[in-house]
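User: I'm curious whether this sequence folds into something compact or stays loose and floppy. Could you predict its structure so I can see for myself?
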Amino acid sequence: MTHSAAAALTAPARARTGGTGDEDGRFTEQVLGWVLAVLVAVLAARLGLV
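Assistant: Here's the prediction. I'll summarize afterward.
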């Protein structure tokens, strides 16, 4: 048994934290970003800041 195989058997399972390899929510993130940008623009227009 190699060192990495032994480590894999004894290491506790780690939760995924959504690091650089997580591309599942990219579309949702893009849509929410645009919605936020539109809401800020509308709010600025309503307050007369533009």
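Summary: The longest helix spans residues 26-46. The chain has a mean pLDDT of 80.
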